[in-house]
Amino acid sequence: MTPMREIRTHAELMDANYRLQRLIYDVTRRYYLLGRDTMVADLAVPPGGHVLEVACGTGRNLALIAKAYPGARLYGLDISREMLRTATARIGTQAVLKQADACDFDGRTLFGVYGFDRIVLSYSLSMIPDWAGALRVAAAHLRPGGELHVVDFGDQSALPDWFRTLLRGWLARFHVTPRTHLEPRMRALANEHGLSLQFRRLYRDYAVYAVLRSPEDRGAAHS
């Protein structure tokens, strides 16, 4: 379990980071957080399905999911109270939002929900220190037949070196680190828990889009 002081410290960092940025976040990020709309279109949420976004930020994705899948039951969590202020103003009653740490949450306690049909991690693992832990916790909350969708920065290996250097330097200003070992970590998680993995590289490895799927006969979700 993550020490409480560490949780508070990361929450404080994110609040400081986004206290003002949250006001212009979506306007500025639309140009380089690529693949998010593809992910929303591919969710294929079942009628009345439960959808959780971990590290939901401003609620931008949840708002699009609500529009694309009427009747879906939406939930979001974020460690930053500042981001949740923006998300709450945007979404209103369309989703249930809670402050929680992506690496240490219990969906039953937070939302009264025993597992989710779809879980989303969108450009969040690159900001979570224990990103592998966040993946494990999210996967543990999948219902039988559920899917965990991850979109984030790739390693930019197919792009020019100068571009990769500039991008990494820019991202570091916002405490963002592309997870270059994401694919092997997700494959290991899939093998360990009997999940299937689809892993795609987008825009010459600028971004990656991965889906972990739980089998229909998987045991009840737990956290």
UniProtKB/TrEMBL annotation:
| Classification via InterPro entries | Methyltransf_12, Methyltransf_Superfamily, SAM-dependent_MTases_sf
| Keyword set, alphabetical order | Transferase
**Gene Ontology molecular-function annotations:** methyltransferase activity
SUPFAM superfamilies this protein is in?
S-adenosyl-L-methionine-dependent methyltransferases
Residue limits of the Methyltransferase type domain? 52-148
**Looking at the keywords, is Mitochondrion present?**
no
A family per Pfam: Methyltransf_12
PANTHER family linked to this entry: METHYLTRANSFERASE, METHYLTRANSFERASE TYPE 12 DOMAIN-CONTAINING PROTEIN
What is the protein's given name?
Answer: S-adenosylmethionine-diacylgycerolhomoserine-N-methlytransferase
Species of the source: Loktanella fryxellensis
